[in-house]
Amino acid sequence: MTKTQVQLRVNGRTHELWVGTNRLLLDALHDDLGMADVRYGCGEGVCGTCTILLDGEPVSACLLFAVQVEGREITTLTGLPAADAESHPIQDCFLQAGAAQCGFCTPGMMLTALALVERTERPTREDIRYELVGNLCRCTGYTKIVDAVEEYACRRRGNGSHD
Amino acid sequence: MVAMTEAIESAPAGTTEFTVVGNSPAHHDFQDKVQGTLRYGADWKLPGMLYGKVVRSLQPCARITAIDTSAARELPGVVAVLTASDVPFNKVVDNASGGLGELTVAQPVLAEDRVRYTGEPVALIAATEPEIAAAAVDLVDVSYADLPGIFDPEEALEPEAPLVHEAGNVLVNWRIGRGDAAAAMAAADVVITGEYRSQHVEHAYLEPESGVGWSDNGVLTLRVSTQVIEHASQIARILDVSENKVRIIASYMGGGFGGKEDMTVEPYLALLAWHTQRPVRMVWDRQESILASTKRHPFVMRYRTGAKADGTLLAQEIDIIGDAGAYPCLSARVLFAGAALAAGPYRVPNITTRSRAVFTNNVPASAFRGFGAMQVVFGYESQMDKLAERLGLTPTEIRDRNQVSKGDTIPTGESLHTAVELTATRDLALARLGPRSTATGPGCRVGRGFASGMQPYGRTIWFRDHASVWLTLQTDGSLLIRSGVTDLGAGQAASLCQIASEVLGAPLEEISVYIGDTALNPPAGGTFATRQLYMSGNAVLSGARELRDSLAAVAAEELGVPPDTLVWRDGMVRTADSSGQNRGIRLAELAQMCQRRGVSTSNLHTWRARGGEFDPEAGQGDSFPDYTYGTHAAEVEVDTETGVVRVLKYAASHDVGQQINPVRVQGQIQGGVMQGLGYALMEDHALIDGQPVSTLFANYLIPTTMDMPDIEVDVVESGEGCGPLNARGIGEPPVGPCAAAIASAIKDAIGVRPNRLPITPERVLELIDEQAAGRVAKDGDHE
């Protein structure tokens, strides 16, 4: 397999790496760049575990080759907190709601939810369920996840940018 | 002395209220999990690391006539190709019954002369890149000669059935009985029969089986996603090295649910790392995981239930057949739990239960949340509903007349020794449903049902279970807990911190818990059977109390008060005198005092569960330490045009004795319900002649956000569990009642009782058609 040089822009930093043209973006992020928050769950784009934001939109990193995303802005969970903050408010909401159990699906879940709340300032519980349908969780039963997203949307409105 | 003590302002003296236990601190693993920084089985990389793959059988039952590995070996980048002849000791013997009568059948690590299920490991590859390892798998040429297979456990019981193993097709045949069931049945006013069937279910943890192995200083270390680090001894046997040469470290699991209780990647990683003397990573892809990992046992359950006209149970005759698949794994123990719990939480003076684990050429079945005791809930609760209907009683009345209470004798002859709060859980769950919903369309019907269940926590008593912990108060006042527990994501490690904090007063942020390492932790047993809060929680509680006793002697002398009046809280030990002049010593100072006086601030403690014996001939004896009881109530809407069942409302209530962390308790119940609803309505690892129909998440469906209503939880705290501070285990219990509650609600909606899981739209339409054709008996059972 021929290797090629790609520049990946991840969480505001540019990384240069040599990858095979068949190198999945998921493997490039997890193994080549050492990002433990981007995880393999199914490799078929169904479970949402490897969700990243690509120019702000949630996508499955297992369905893209690394060479396809040059010049795009990739955000993973660890890229969410502001430079001077330990955590992003959505992480605080998940923590306080007890919305993680094994934690494996949690990064993808939060990124998908974040994109929803960016678009929809006041999502209903049904809106949240509809948006998260592509993020599987086997531990929580989803109730606390929906609670956490609802709370995050509420806090975000409370911060004054929308209401 | 004065310099080392200081005044405390407020004095909540001598209170027995908990300050840490019973709260829901969002600490320990929760923090790393929302930060995305927890390192799971695949998140480990070492210099020179190779990538391992398993070559698996594509045949369910065949003789291996040849294995040609030459093409795979020649592929550049391939470092090792191993087959059965490379395995020093090619056997895994489970002996899950603990020597109480199962066949001794060894499972090969790599198949030698024949394969017995689709997905059985045949060869191993290690290569420098994962893509090369995957390509090499396709280059291993295995020649097979088909053998007649057997795929239905009932057919496997026929005299002429092909043998999966020469020793026979019946792995174990449990009998449990008391009284004279035949005579009592003959004398009964009413006899209800029922046949219930459940399916293969995939665990579907989001983190696939994964880990890394390496060799260092002559010791093989495996860092893997596993529930049981004690498999190190099996690995030593397989490699034919002594047990001190194998170390297993368990990463925090991305879910397990029983599926990481048997070994998964461990033997393959061990063999590859040992042979190559290089680090090796292995991650099963999702398709491989669904194809080859163990499943929940499908049960065929046949019930005959005899009662008096007033509804009092007289007799149960129960026959259970479980499809063990091709190898023993933990089937003997699963079928024991099914047998022991087959009559559920109801008094039955005369009972005979037979429960058999039967080999087939299907994928092996083994541990899965609920472990045999969950399948039978569908059986016994359906029988109770049918009995009520036959006698014109309500489902509540029939249960009130038969429900067990503390002190009652169960079928194994044991007496229940803790509170049974089933009525309280039922009242709460039913009240939670609120006003009945109205149907959303002309073809839609709303129905309601409930089901109760009892689930053991702790290992079967004859295994004489024990767990150890090592607690150390450091000279800066921080506390170390070292315990061999593994963490499934249910807070196994975090709950130990809460208990230790409660006893010793060290703040949670100053406690570290080191878990899951055979080299550095005292053994705690694996995390399964809802046993870790019960076992390791008790070990921490009593170990911390012992440690506190030795620290208290020093503190009491310093403070001039009796040791039993000291209060341990907020990183301090202080007096609790009524004068308000409380004085205290910081734990750091106390630890230094102890050091100066030669008093140890460390305690290695082993907690032992009650032991006992079970007599398999008599079918009587000691079975489980205790049970967690609960009731679930459901409201569903059935679309009679499409057969789709929508769960509108769902409420679950369990008595957990004493909550250690209420948010985590709720999480266990809500998550258990999700798995129970998937089991009830959609999940089916269907096999056709041993070949799985679905091996992708795209076609093995588990509940999504859109399938799940909000799960309402009510917790009862009877204060009578056998766990630490009277807690009961809550890991497995919530998965049990779901299918029975849903089936009962569907019966209420459409008038026909489902008796086969999952209750898919197709099956609902079949039930409706049967009803239209008049093939349904008055009580909703099929004729």
Automatic annotation (TrEMBL), chain A:
Keywords per UniProt: 2Fe-2S, Iron, Iron-sulfur, Metal-binding, Oxidoreductase
Source taxon at top rank: Bacteria
Iron in keyword set: yes
Transmembrane segment boundaries: none
Domain annotation 2Fe-2S ferredoxin-type: ranges: 4-80
GO molecular function: 2 iron, 2 sulfur cluster binding; metal ion binding; oxidoreductase activity
Entries under InterPro entries matching the protein: 2Fe-2S-bd, 2Fe-2S-bd_dom_sf, 2Fe-2S_ferredoxin-like_sf, 2Fe-2S_ferredoxin-type, 2Fe2S_fd_BS, Beta-grasp_dom_sf, Diverse_Oxidoreductases
Transmembrane helix recorded as keyword: no
SUPFAM superfamilies found in the cross-reference section: 2Fe-2S ferredoxin-like, CO dehydrogenase ISP C-domain like
Protein name: Purine hydroxylase delta subunit apoprotein
Organism: Tamaricihabitans halophyticus
TrEMBL record, chain B:
Entries under InterPro entries matching the protein: Ald_Oxase/Xan_DH_a/b, Ald_Oxase/Xan_DH_a/b_sf, Ald_Oxase/xanthine_DH-like, AldOxase/xan_DH_MoCoBD1, AldOxase/xan_DH_MoCoBD2, AldOxase/xan_DH_Mopterin-bd_sf
SUPFAM superfamilies: CO dehydrogenase molybdoprotein N-domain-like, Molybdenum cofactor-binding domain
A Pfam family it matches: Ald_Xan_dh_C
GO molecular function annotation: iron ion binding; oxidoreductase activity
All residue ranges annotated as the Aldehyde oxidase/xanthine dehydrogenase a/b hammerhead domain in the record: 35-148
Protein name: CO/xanthine dehydrogenase Mo-binding subunit
Source organism per UniProt: Tamaricihabitans halophyticus
